[in-house]
Amino acid sequence: MPHNPLKFQKSLNWLCRISCGLSRHIHIDCGNLSAKFWLEPVALARNVGYAAHQLRELRKLIESHHTELLEAWYGHFGAKRG
Predict the structure, then answer these.
(1) Chain centre distance of CA 78
(2) Dihedral, CA of residue 19, residue 67, residue 80 and residue 45, to nearest 10
(3) By C-alpha distance, which of 66, 47, 70 is closest to 81?
(4) Burial, 75: exposed, middle or buried (Cβ in 10 Å; 0-12, 13-18, 19+)?
(5) Predicted confidence (pLDDT) at residue 81 exceeds the cutoff of 80
(6) d(CA 56, CA 76)
């Protein structure tokens, strides 16, 4: 399934990919760093290389854009909430 890239501009340029699956989740990649977060509820699923403080920052970013990320996920895969 193709990924839908979203860009969050901060001090680093992270690539956020919306991925298909049974549970709504995203992948956040930056160079050799990669993390997978569940969206409902927001939780870290996998981490490759990010430091704890970076993961906290990513989680805060996801939480602050939670509605936008869910809308993008549902919009991309055609699923409806509820």
Answers:
(1) 18
(2) 40
(3) 70
(4) exposed
(5) no
(6) 26
For residue 4, what is the DSSP state? E
More confident: 15 or 55: 55
pTM of the prediction?
0.74
Q: Is the pLDDT of residue 11 over 50?
A: no
What's the pLDDT tens digit per position in 28-79? Answer: 888 899 999 998 899 999 999 999 999 999 999 899 989 988 888 787 777 6
Report the amino acid identity of residue 25: H
Q: Identify whether the C-beta of residue 30 lies closer than 8 Å to the C-beta of residue 12.
A: yes
Given the structure tokens 């993390």, which residue do they identify?
35
Apex 40 CA angle, 39 and 45, nearest 5: 55
Buried b (16+ CB within 10 A) or exposed e, 6-15: bebeeeeebe
